[in-house]
Structure formats: structure tokens, C-alpha cells
């Protein structure tokens, strides 16, 4: 997921960008997965549209992303 966003999947990278979540540390290294997941959860907890959440979750997390929306809705503290 993070490597795809960093190295070439335009759809995945666009979804992370739309959410305002960075996958690299600014030095070209992929960030820790736990940190990125916490950032994703925080952004999802701030969003209102459930259909948009589902679409973005699938883009960044794959087919199982939709099932993770309830967890992501809990924000950083819920993770």
C-alpha cells in the first residue's frame, strides 16, 4: 500500500494526497505503517461522507479497505 503510493500507483497516491496523508518522510523513505494508519484514521474521523470514505479506503487499503472504515472512523485514539 505505502510502496504503491510512493512508487507509482497514481490512484493510490492521489487518494493519500486527497486525504493529506504523507507516505514518505520527506527524505525519500517510506514512513512507519503504524504512523500512516493513525494519520489515515484521524482524517477518516474528520470526514462526513460515508460513500467517499468507502471509496478512499478501497483506494488506499485495497478491497478490504471498506471493512476498515468503522475502525478508521474512530480516529487515532481508536487505533
List keywords for this structure.
single chain; 79 residues; 6 helices; 0% strand; globular
What does this structure look like?
Helix content is 68%, strand content 0%. The protein has 79 residues and is mostly helical. It contains 6 helices and no strands. It is globular and about 35 Å long.
Uncertain spans, ≥5 residues at pLDDT below 50?
none
**Morphology:** globular
**Approximate helicity band:** 55-70%
Mean pLDDT: 88
Instruction: Note the beta-strand portion.
Output: under 5%
Major sheet summary line: none
N-to-C terminal Cα separation, in Å?
18 Å
Radius of gyration: 12 Å
Helical stretch tally:
6
Structural class: mainly alpha
Output the helix-strand order. HHHHHH
Question: In total, how many beta strands?
Answer: 0
What is the topology?
Layout: H1 2-7, H2 10-19, H3 33-46, H4 50-61, H5 65-72, H6 75-78
Helix pairs in contact: 2-4, 4-5
Write a brief structural summary.
The chain has 79 residues and is mainly alpha-helical. It contains six helices and no strands. The protein has helices at 2-7, 10-19, 33-46, 50-61, 65-72, 75-78.
